[in-house]
């Protein structure tokens, strides 16, 4: 009898945990080839031009002993009545770094490219908490960098599990003085990825910022002309780690003749611009200190980004 009662209590506890979503398996956010498409438009002006951009997760890098996923950004063609698929109108730039703790269900980010950061409250070059998916109904959010300054606490009004952008995941309904919308576990928010969780009020203009589409893998029907950043299986760069100089061998890479190579810091700062005359050449590294660098190779249509270490 005592054993049956104990078993009943265990089953009852599992039931309540399941109802609260605690036992729901965490859906990771940061995987290669994931894409987020965000759109901004002035809904007070009919047929106004949108601003539409894409985030693209690809590759990892180390800062100290911590591994981060690299997040790239580029603009897409835009118009209010334009339907997908969209064409890119700019090249990818390294936008930021993100990491997640799957045990605590928290996601952190480091904003790197302040030239194209729109509507983000996250401080540049500083790791900040972007999302916490361990929250429950009634919890107040005041510790995200995606909460607008001066917005105050935003309360989790309700949670549930359902289909969001074609994937089954947990969502959190927000309610606050200047923020209404949703958090999506493993995706971001209804506002975007890095975008502030801010709902504008009606004034002279009224604009709308939202996550428009989400692609959980490399096949994205909402974008055409996509060129991956890691088509580098035939690219040879050696030695890596670097000593005094590095050899770049492009002889087997399918790129056009008009090549341009950019040497960047891990933060995206341009250090050197090279227009190679041959497919195999040496790049001196005498004057660069130890650290992680990026080589961005482009022919105007395709980009290859490679991490090197000195």
Write the layout of secondary structure elements.
Elements: H1 2-19, E1 35-42, E2 51-63, E3 66-76, E4 93-101, E5 106-111, E6 128-132, E7 140-141, E8 154-164, E9 167-176, E10 180-184, E11 188-189, E12 207-215, E13 236-238, E14 245-249, E15 260-265, E16 270-274, E17 280-284, E18 292-298, E19 303-309
Antiparallel strand pairs: 1-2, 1-12, 2-3, 3-4, 4-5, 5-6, 7-8, 8-9, 9-10, 10-11, 13-14, 14-17, 15-16, 15-18, 18-19
Share of residues in strands: 35-45%
Q: List the secondary-structure elements in sequence, H or E.
A: HEEEEEEEEEEEEEEEEEEE
Contiguous runs where pLDDT drops below 50 for at least 5 residues: 5-23
Shape estimate: globular
Largest beta sheet, briefly?
7 strands, antiparallel
Number of strands: 19
> Strand arrangement, largest sheet?
6-5-4-3-2-1-12
User: Structural class given helices, strands, pairing?
Assistant: mainly beta
N-end to C-end Cα span:
68 Å
Indicate the percent of residues in helices.
under 10%
Q: Give the overall average pLDDT.
A: 78
Cα Rg: 23 Å
Number of helices: 1
